[in-house]
Automatic annotation (TrEMBL):
Organism of this sequence: Gordonia liuliyuniae
Record Pfam families: Acyl-CoA_dh_1 (PF00441), Acyl-CoA_dh_M (PF02770)
PANTHER family according to UniProt: ACYL-COA DEHYDROGENASE (PTHR43884), ISOVALERYL-COA DEHYDROGENASE, MITOCHONDRIAL-RELATED (PTHR43884:SF12)
Protein name listed in UniProt: Acyl-CoA dehydrogenase family protein
Domain of life of the source: Bacteria
C-alpha cells in the first residue's frame, strides 16, 4: 500500500505557529536562559496563552478524519508541534505553560469528565524516585483511600517543570504487596497542602527548563482525580498508566528530531562555507569526509522522523503502538546524541565555542536519550514486543 507522507492541510497552522515561535521567540533568548538556569523565561507566558486559545480550534479539527478509515489527530499534532519548537530550544519547549508532560498523560488515560475538568491545567509528570530510574514498576510512593480522598506520601525526583506547573501527575501504588498492578496515576494540584518543591536540580543541558524534587506528605486529593480505573487488575498489570508512554515517547522522539534538524542545518552551513558541496547524486565515497559523515547523519535523522510519524499515526488511529513508540524514542534519542556530538567534532572550534549553539545542542540532546525511558529500556521493550515475551520472561 502506498503511503502519503504529505502533511494534512489541517495541521499546517500548527506547524506554522510553532515554527514562528521557535524562530522569533526561542532562538533569540536560547543562550540567555542557558546561562541563567532556574530563571523563569517570562517570554513564554504569552505563548502559553496563545497555545491555550488555539487548543479549542485544534480539538475541533482533530475530531474530523482525512479519509474514511484514517485519522490524523492529537498525537500527530503533538509530534509536529514538538519537532518545530525543539528546533528553537528543547528547554523552552518543555517550559511552555499548559503543555507539560503531565498534560500528555491526562490526554492518554483520562475519562471524558476528567478531560473537561483538567482542560486548562498545566501538569508536570512525577514518576522517578530516589530508589529507581527507568524501572517504573518500582514505584514506592503510596496512595491510600480515606473516604472520598486519597492520601499520598512519597518523594519524586527529576520532575520536569515541577516548580512551574500548577498540577502534577503522580504515579503511586495503592497496595505495595500486589506489585505493578496497583500502580495508578493521580492529578494533584501543586497548591495541595503537603505538596512541596524540595529543590531544583543543576543539569548538563535543558537549563531553561526547571527540574524539581517534589515531596508528598499526607497530601490529600479527590478520589476522582485518579486517572483510569481504581480497580486493581493483576492480570492486566499496570498497562493503563503505561499507556501514557505510548503517547509521550513519540513526542520525545519528535523533540530529538527537531533538535537534530537544527544541528544538521548549522553543520551544513559550516561545511558549505568551507567550500565542500553536499552532492546527493555522487557516491558518498567520492566526496569529502565531512560531507560523507553529514549524509550518513542525515539519513539516520530521516529514519528517526519516519518512525516517529508512524508511532503517532498509530496512536491517533487507536492501534497498539507500544513497540513503535519505543522504536521511535530509541532511534531518535540515539541518533540526536551522535548527530550533535559529531556536529561539534566536525565544526571544531566553532562547535566547541559559545559563539554558536552547537555545543549547547550537544548538551541538551543527552536528556532525550534518557528521560521517558533510557535507550536500554526501550531496546528491552522492543525485544519483548517482537519476541512476544513478558517482562517476567525477558528482563
Amino acid at each position: 500500500m502506498a503511503i502519503n507522507l504529505e502533511l494534512p492541510e489541517k495541521l499546517n497552522s500548527t506547524v506554522e505557529r510553532a515554527r514562528l515561535a521557535a524562530e522569533h521567540i526561542f532562538r533569540p533568548i536560547s543562550r540567555k536562559y542557558d546561562k541563567a538556569e532556574h530563571e523563569y523565561p517570562v517570554e513564554l507566558d504569552d505563548l502559553g496563552k496563545m497555545a491555550k486559545q488555539a487548543r479549542g480550534g485544534d480539538k475541533a479539527a482533530d475530531s474530523s478524519s482525512d479519509g474514511e478509515s484514517t485519522v490524523n489527530g492529537v498525537n500527530l499534532r503533538s509530534v509536529l508541534n514538538a519537532r518545530e519548537l525543539s528546533w528553537g530550544d528543547v528547554g523552552f519547549m518543555l517550559s511552555i505553560p499548559y503543555q507539560g508532560l503531565g498534560n500528555a498523560a491526562i490526554a492518554a488515560v483520562a475519562n471524558d469528565e476528567q478531560l473537561e475538568r483538567f482542560a486548562d491545567v498545566w501538569a508536570a509528570m512525577a514518576i522517578t524516585e530516589p530508589g529507581f530510574g527507568s524501572d517504573s514498576a518500582a514505584v514506592s510512593t503510596t496512595a491510600v483511600l480515606d473516604g472520598d480522598e486519597y492520601v499520598i506520601n512519597g518523594e519524586k525526583i527529576f520532575v520536569t517543570a515541577g516548580s512551574r506547573a500548577d498540577h502534577v501527575v503522580v504515579w503511586a501504588t495503592l497496595d505495595k504487596s500486589v506489585g505493578r498492578a496497583a500502580i495508578k496515576s493521580f492529578v494533584v494540584p501543586m497548591s495541595t497542602e503537603g505538596v512541596t518543591v524540595a529543590r531544583l536540580e543543576h543539569k548538563l543541558g535543558i537549563k531553561s527548563s526547571d527540574t524539581a524534587v517534589v515531596r508528598f506528605d499526607n497530601a490529600r486529593v479527590r478520589a476522582d482525580n485518579l486517572l483510569g480505573t481504581p480497580e486493581i487488575n493483576v492480570k492486566k498489570g499496570f498497562g493503563g498508566v503505561m499507556q501514557t508512554f505510548d503517547n509521550t515517547r513519540p513526542v520525545v522522539a519528535a523533540m530529538a528530531v527537531g533538535l537534530g534538524r537544527a544541528a544538521l542545518e548549522e553543520l551544513r552551513r559550516i561545511i558549505e562555507e568551507a567550500g565542500h558541496e553536499i552532492d546527493y547524486d555522487r557516491p558518498v565515497a567520492a566526496q569529502h569526509a565531512a560531507v560523507a559523515e553529514f549524509i550518513r547523519l542525515e539519513s539516520d535523522w530521516e529514519a528517526s522522523w519516519m518512525l516517529t510519524l508512524r508511532a503517532a499515526w498509530m496512536a491517533d488511529n487507536k492501534q497498539p503502538n507500544s513497540a513503535e513508540a519505543s522504536m521511535s524514542k530509541a532511534k531518535a534519542g540515539r541518533s540526536v546524541t551522535e548527530l550533535t556530538n559529531k556536529a561539534v567534532e566536525i565544526s571544531a572550534t566553532a562547535g566547541f565555542s559559545e559563539t554558536q549553539l552547537l555545543e549547547k545542542w550537544a548538551r541538551d540532546s543527552k536528556i532525550l536519550d534518557i528521560f521517558e525511558g533510557t535507550q536500554q529500556i526501550q531496546q528491552l521493550i522492543i525485544a519483548r514486543r517482537v519476541l512476544g515475551k513478558s517482562s517476567a520472561d525477558l528482563k
